[in-house]
Write a structure and sequence with these properties.
By secondary structure, this protein is mainly alpha-helical. The chain has one domain (11-122): Zincin-like (2-Layer Sandwich). The chain is 45% helix and 6% strand. The chain is built from 5 helices and 3 strands. It has helices at 11-27, 70-81, 88-102, 106-115, 126-134; strands at residues 44-46, 55-56, 60-62. It has a 3-stranded mixed beta sheet. β2 and β3 (60-62) form a beta hairpin. The longest helix has 17 residues, at 11-27. It starts with 10 loop residues before the first helix and ends in a 7-residue tail after the last helix. The structure holds zinc ion. Zinc ion (ZN) is lined by residues 75, 79, 86.
Length: 141
Amino acid sequence: MLPLESDLLTLDACRTLVALAYRWHVANPHPLLPPNEPFAPPPRVTDGRGRRHACGSRAVIKLPRWSRTRPIVLHECAHGMAADGHGPLFMTAYLRLLARFLDFDTPSLERSLAEAGIRTGRNPPAASSAYEASRLPVISE
Ligand SMILES: [Zn+2]
């Protein structure tokens, strides 16, 4: 759970935050994240009526009332910026939105995520290095 920012936004404020997040994402491409079409509109934001969970994609973000907080809106934005569920690319997109829009300290956040075993784009799994190492050509005698 994030320690800050539990205040509920109006749906219009959520739309503004989504627009800001996408404008910034377009202006600041990240090498690991798929490029965003510069003229594509941000995802449509709907009120999530009748839904228990919030959800987000590149096309639409659905926000039931309880979910209209800055961290959750940015979480749903990150889903539209990376297509790997809650994987390392998603975490990369989410962390930079948190750093940019909520002033989170990215290095310490990445450290605590790494300690908790949660991967981000900058923390590739140790297993992949082990796999690469295991694939090195060997000389058979
Ligand atoms: Zn999610």
